[in-house]
Structure formats: structure tokens, C-alpha cells
Amino acid sequence: MISQFFILSSKGDPLIYKDFRGDSGGRDVAELFYRKLTGLPGDESPVVMHHDGRHFIHIRHSGLYLVVTTSENVSPFSLLELLSRLATLLGDYCGSLGEGTISRNVALVYELLDEVLTTSTEMLRNFIQTEAVVSKPFSLFDLSSVGLVSRGKEEEMRIGLTEEFCVGKSELRGYGPGIRVDEVSFHSSVNLDEFESHRILRLQPPQGELTVMRYQLSDDLPSPLPFRLFPSVQWDRGSGRLQVYLKLRCDLPSKSQALNVRLHLPLPRGVVSLSQELSSPEQKAELVEGALRWDLPRVQGGSQLSGLFQMDVPGPPGPPSHGLSTSAPPLGLGPASLSFELPRHTCSGLQVRFLRLAFRPCGNANPHKWVRHLSHSDAYVIRI
Amino acid sequence: MPYLGSEDVVKELKKALCNPHIQADRLRYRNVIQRVIRYMTQGLDMSGVFMEMVKASATVDIVQKKLVYLYMCTYAPLKPDLALLAINTLCKDCSDPNPMVRGLALRSMCSLRMPGVQEYIQQPILNGLRDKASYVRRVAVLGCAKMHNLHGDSEVDGALVNELYSLLRDQDPIVVVNCLRSLEEILKQEGGVVINKPIAHHLLNRMSKLDQWGQAEVLNFLLRYQPRSEEELFDILNLLDSFLKSSSPGVVMGATKFFLILAKKFPHVQTDVLVRVKGPLLAACSSESRELCFVALCHVRQILHSLPGHFSSHYKKFFCSYSEPHYIKLQKVEVLCELVNDENVQQVLEELRGYCTDVSADFAQAAIFAIGGIARTYTDQCVQILTELLGLRQEHITTVVVQTFRDLVWLCPQCTEAVCQALPGCEENIQDSEGKQALIWLLGVHGERIPNAPYVLEDFVENVKSETFPAVKMELLTALLRLFLSRPAECQDMLGRLLYYCIEEEKDMAVRDRGLFYYRLLLVGIDEVKRILCSPKSDPTLGLLEDPAERPVNSWASDFNTLVPVYGKAHWATISKCQGAERCGPELPKTSSFAASGPLIPEDNKEREQELPDSGALMLVPNRQLTAEYFEKTWLSLKVAHQQVLPWRGEFHPDTLQMALQVVNIQTIAMSRAGTRPWKAYLSAQDDTGCLFLIELLLEPENSEMQISVKQNEARTETLNSFISVLETVIGTIEQIKS
Q1: CB-CB neighbors (< 8 A) of A322 in chain B
Q2: Which has fewest Cβ within 10 Å: A327, B63, B290, B347?
Q3: Is the full-model pTM beyond 0.80?
């Protein structure tokens, strides 16, 4: 069902090109894809594009375009999944995914592509012969024996989760409020025999990186939101002077802290100058691409930080118009968004109790175990 | 590395490849080959070193082998004679003791794509199908499809197909899936691989052994199977239930589609499945992969068309984040617009209002239009928000708000008063054609409620000379005439000036004609003007037309988990129209379909063939009776696309022929009476993409042959060929009956 696969650099140069069916217009297609992509009007989605009986489906990963073409009305979910899987796989094999690593490992990538469509990814490593050219040594490559071996039963990993972990609205465990999530899904290699009774996940992981479990929870978060932002905006339309006072309160427990906090506040068009008063010296604020960027490397739980920013918004000083109070914030200001990392913190409260390995990896290397809890903000947006 | 032209590079590499010192050093040799591959990928022509690369294939180093074979597959079509030299090595490798070498060699041979290679690959493929290593069997099974494609004709090797069908029972799950893929390809002309009851149940039982790609693909193949009884149907659904919980979105969506289609007569099952897919879909909507997120959003919209309340409690999941790309934001705004209900309307509107002041004008305008859409249900709140937006005095906002108002008062007359109060002052912030037209229309139709309406229009009249858009002038003429009817004293003078300008000075013919028309209308008398211009000022019923009632799930079930929701139905229609192929789904009207050749479809599958017409098949539409005049005109304007002579012996009964043609939806326009010499008939047919076929039959008994000429209004060889084979079949059959 896939006619071609290619990887393009961010500038559109072909790095990898593979024609599976030989029924299509050759490598010009890669160029055609890039031309179409860059010429696309802003309101159209580039994910799936059509040209002359051919559908282009692509993902962008680490600045590269991974593209497949097909002439059939295929499942977009499966194809996108395949592309993501390829991206992870290439990353696993080459150490990292990028223009440099791909062009250094051309042979390996072609080999992977050849095998990936006939072989299940778990068994893949047995068929790959080329060694990766990596910038740093990569521990997964101690393939000593190659052959059609199947995996032994003993290679098992056990992950114990918090026992009060409840899925769905109604499940009850223990006497406390429990740790409740709405939905949970597991990787196909996870064995759930002990999940019901002891909240233990057993798995025989394939090599490489792996998402074992995904869950989501909405609305009722068990812990308070980590940050509150109290903005106040003063805007003098006449002089074009805009003053933004931001107070950021961290509601984490006082022992915890947030790292790499960055506040991003879009500003009205044409803002020119910025003067700032920040509450501590390690903070930094600057204007980047028409937005205010306020960096706070470290915020302790329970603390409160503030910044006062003054800017000039040029433009025709319009007369105070009807129905609009002069203090209303100007166009284009906000909403603010925060990005941060919370080490040793999960919003659901879910923790890994233990991680046990029931096997010894080939070679004599001792396995390293490293359990780390970390919350990443994805979209933490606050209206101004 | 210094820059070298392609020729210099080839020369240098050629030298390196021939260098015995390099050949002796395994790593250096391999490195040179790697460089060849890298240049090849970059698009440099490396075919110059073909000979040297062929030599390099004789090696025990498997990495080197792989690289060389990759090279050969790329350039074999350019150098077929040289490539034949490599066949020997490949054949030898096909019986190597190492299964990996066997598989590699077989795969490379099948990918050579050059004329004449078929005779060499047939035996290795057949051997590969019986190889003891599953790896080789996987390759060999796919090789069958490639071999079939190489043959180039549609001749199907029955023995091979049988062998593949029997390999569906292979122990290795990937061999099974590859068999399906291969059969599908080989049997394309016949409608693809046939899934009968034993095969369906066999696949169902193997499902859990497959990997996620296999599962997703098999689910798609299983759609072809029609369970015989309700009991069997529910057994199958129970068996597949666990796949709705898979961690792979592709499998979940595949299973969802399967359930939706199989349970098409059980709406409660469908609703239940859609409730269960909510979680996975929402998870995909907030996936870190933007592309997946986008595709999931498109499917959410699809579901909302049938179940508007389905995602209402999850509205927050569809709020936009500033870092998201434009196309995702637009999709989310659409979703928000569709899932709004009494409980969330407040929050959704508040969120949308935030988007209206976004720095991206496109996104801001999309948000305003979305509020306008919600205003049809929650009028007061929305009109208030829109009025506040006017206060920002931004051109790109004001113009869209005014357009929204125009559409709104037409559909929801109750908000006219509020809109009329908001309008004064807008004219200062509108520059574009669309916005001006909307404002002028509002002033004309509802001018009696807007105190300064004549004065705003007067400004437009004053500046009409510098107005660049004819559409604005047309709108101005109509609006001023309307306003003149309700406020004659204020308008009479400027109406005169405008009419004078339009008739005497305007260069655009349409505007001039419109001016003349109104002038003459006014001459007839004011009552006549009123009769003609005073139409209703609103039409609430139009709203019902615009939002068609909830569509049944069955209307889109077959599109679920395909590209259709991603492109959007309208865009898809244009795509498939220009492609002339790609039809799917059981919702198509029952029309007769003809695959170009008949056999090899077991009888138990006839019904599926009708429901899921193969993309290559021709579909003639019934009852497309053309008038003789139209036929004649078209016939004369087209060239003959195909001419053919069929043998004909003995008696001839035109009526029988006409009836037979009718059965396959070929209409008779005119024909000579029986016994006339020479006998002639004119026929016509149309396929579902609108392609028209016009046919002339000419029978001259002396020559005992039937001459057929076919004309086609769109030059499409593929459909023409299938059409001709249909025609041949019919005429051939009639001839046989007779003799």
C-alpha cells in the first residue's frame, strides 16, 4: 500500500529515498512534495496532501520530513503510527535522529527500511547487520550473536505502581481517595496478569525506548495546579505605554521545586522597548519574536516571584473610541503560557513503587536501573 | 571534501572500487560502496560504476551484499544487460545455507524491475514459498506480487494464487499478513483477495498473534466478510472486542470501523462503540505528534456530525495552545463550534473570544466566524461579544464581524435590533470588498432602523469613482434604492447622482446594466419598484437548510479511518473525481458493476462485489437516457476513441441485443429495423464519474462482421478498455445464443 518512502532535510534535500512499488514518478516526487508543502496556503493542513492520484502523508520529526506516498485510501492512523515508529526506530539505532546522523548512516537506514516492512519490529534487531555510526557510544549495540533466535521467557521486567491506582470514575482501592485516572492504555508487550491484584506490570520489553503506559485525567486533579499567575495590565492608549505586572505563585509543596520555568506572553504588534524589574537576579526576560519571554531557572514550592514589564506599543494613537474603556488590554496581548519541569512530581500522584529485572542482559554488564518522576508541561495557558 | 562534479566523483569511485588494495581490505571496500550509496540517494547519477558494483556483490560480507543489492535495484532499469550479469550471484545466494542471505537475495531479485527478469525469479520464488525459514517465506510471498506486476498483463497464475491461499494457514503470522497483501495485489482486477467464512474465522483466530500493523490490516480485510447470521456477527464482535482497547491508535480505529460497519443494523452497538473510542480519540487529540492530533480531530468532527453531544463534556481538550500549528487550531475551533451546548457555551465563548484578538489575522477571523455559527443557537451572548469586538476598531476584525452580522440577521431576525445599534461607526474600519458589501447590504435592508444609514451610504456614493470593486457598486445601487423606498427624502438626491454616474460614467458593464435597470424600473412607478425590491428581510428556515440534521452513523462509517475525513468530504469528492477511482463503502447506490474479467471470484462473494466495487472497475449508471439531438451533437463533436470489428454469423435480432444492452445499462438511442442492410445502431452509456460513452454499431452481413466505434467525452483509456470489454461480452453472448 505504500508506494514510496523518503526522508527530506528541513531544507527539502532528499536524505533517503526508497521506492517500494516502482509505479510512481521516481524521485521527482520528493521534490514535488516539498514544493507543495512550502506553497500550501496557511489554512490548509499539510499532513495529508494530494497530487495527481498520489497522497503524501508525512510527519515532521526533529526537523526532518518523513514522507510516504500511496495511491490508495489508506488508514491515516496506521500510516502516521508507522512513520512515528520509524522515527523512533531510526533514533534508537542511530543514537539520535537528525540530518547528520541519517546521512552518516545511510546504509543502516536502508537496511532498516527493507526489513521493517517484512519483519515485526521486535525481531528487527536480529536482521540488522550494519553498525551505526554514532557520535557517542550507544549501549544497545552489543549484538554478539546474530541469527533467528527467539527471545527466552526469562527476560522479564516487573514494574510496581502505586497500589491505590484506580482507573475510571467508579473503581475503589484502599480507603483513601486513591489515585484516579480516566483512561489508561498499555504497550502490547505488557502482561496485565498481576495488574488487577497488585498493580504490577510485567513486560518483556523490546529493545529501545518504549512507552509502557499512557493515562489521562481531566478536570478533578488531586493536587492543586502547580502555578498561579496574577497579571495586571495597565495600558495608556494615548501614549502607547503598556505596563504588565506579573506575579507567579508556585503552589507546589515547599520541598519541591520547578525547573526551567519559562513564561511566554504574546504582545501587541510592533512592541519596541522593554524595561523590566524582576524579583530575583537569576531570572531573565527578553523580547523574542513579538513576545515576552520570562525565564525562571528554578522556582521553589510555596514561593512567589514577580516581574514588572514596561513597553511601548507604537501605532496611530486612535481617539478614545465609543464603548471601549481606555484601560482594556490592547489587541494581541496574551494569553500567557508556561512551560516547566517538575522533578519528583506527577500530577496524578502515580508513582513507580519498584522496578525489577528478572534477567541478565547478554554480556556481563550489570543493568542500570534509574527511576525518575518528572512532569512536563505541555500546554499550560493562562488568560490575561 | 572538495566539491566535485558528478563525473569526477564517478571516476574517482570507479578507481577506488577497482583498486585491489581496497578490495582486499573489507572495511575500506565497504566504505567506498557506502559512499556510492550516499551519492545515489542525493540524486547523483552513479550508474557509471555498475560493473564494479556487480563485481562487489560476490562477497561473504553480508553488509556489503545488502548495499550492492540496493544499488543494483536502483540502477538495473538503466543497465539491464549488465544487471543480468548479477543474476547468477543472486541465484546462487537464493540457495545459501543462511536464511538471511536467501531472503536478501530473493528480495533484491524481485525488486530489479527490468524486462526479462521474470524468467529468472520464478523458480527462486516458488522455492522460497516452501523454504523452512519463515523469513524467506515472508519475502517470497511478497515477491509473488512483484512477479505478477512485472508480467505487466492481467493474466493471473491460478496455481500461484492457490498456493498463496494455502499459505494463509502458515504458522508465521507475518507470512499470513504478507499473503493477504500479495493476493490483494495479484487479484486487483478481480476485486482483491476473497475472504470467505473459513478464511475469515482463521484470521480472526490468528489476530492476537499478529503485530499491530498486521492487526490493523487484517481488520480492514475482514470488512469484506459478511457474517451469515446475527449470532455469528456477535460472536465475531465479541472476539474482536479487546482490539478496541489496543494501545495502537491504528488498531483501535480499525476495530472501531469494523464494529461500525458490521453493526450497521444495530444502532445501539454503534453508539456503544463510539463511546468506547472516545478515550483513545481524545488521547490522540492531545498526542505529541501534531499529525496524529490533526487526523484525530478530523475524526472527532466526523463523529460530531452524527452525535453532536458526544464530546461536549470534554470541550477543554479542544482549547488551542499558542504553540500549535495553524491547521490544528482551525480544526479545534470547528470542533468547539460543533460541540457547544447549554452547559459549556459560556466557557467555549470565552475561549473563542480570546482567539479573536490573536496576532494571526486568519485565526482571529476563523474564531469570529465560529462565534457567528454559535450565534444561531445562542444569539444574545454571541451578538454581545461580536459588538465588543467592533470596539477594537481593527480592520480585519470589523470586516468579519459585519459579514457575520449580515448572515445572522438573515437567519435570526430577533437580533436585528442589536445589530443595528452596533453598526454605526463600522464604516471607518472596513476596506475590503466583502466587508463593504456586507455593511452596505445591512444599511439598505435595515436602514430604517439605523439613523445615520443615508449618510454612511452617501459617503460611499461620494467616493464611488475611486471604488475598485464592481461588486460593491452593485450592492450600493440595490441598497440605496431600497433605502430610498423607506427614507425617500434623505436618499432621492444621492440616488439620482449614483444612477447618473453608473449609467454615464461607469465602465463595468454589469454595474452599468444594473443602473439602467433600476432607472427604467423607477420610470415604471414607485409601486412597481416596491413590489420588486421589498422582499423578506430574513429567512429563519434557511438555517435548517444550512445545518442538515444529524447524519446517520451509517452514512460515514465506511469513511472512518480513511483519508476522507482528513481531506474533508468536499475536497475528497474533487480528488476522487479527477482520479476517477477510489470508491468505497456500502452506501453507494446499487449499480451494476463490471470487473474487466470474470472468473476466480467464488460465488459466495458476489454480494461483496456489489457492495465494495473495486477501484479499477467500471460502473455504468442506469437510466441515463440521452435525447437524440444531444447524442447527435456530442457524436459529431467527438473523435472515435476506439474502433473494433467483431465476427458475426447468421441471423440477427435487434430486440434481443437491445434488451441485453439494457441489462448492463447501455441505452439504445436509435437503431435500424431488423433486416435492414446495412444495419446500424447508436448506443450511449455513462459511468458514475460522468464519463460518457457513445457507440455506433454497424452490421454488414456480406462481410459477416460487426463494426464497433466508440467515442468518449473524456479521454480515459482505462475506463474505455473496461467498457469495451463489457460491450464485447454482451455482443459475444448474443451471438452465441443465436448460433
Answers
A1: 391, 425
A2: A327
A3: no
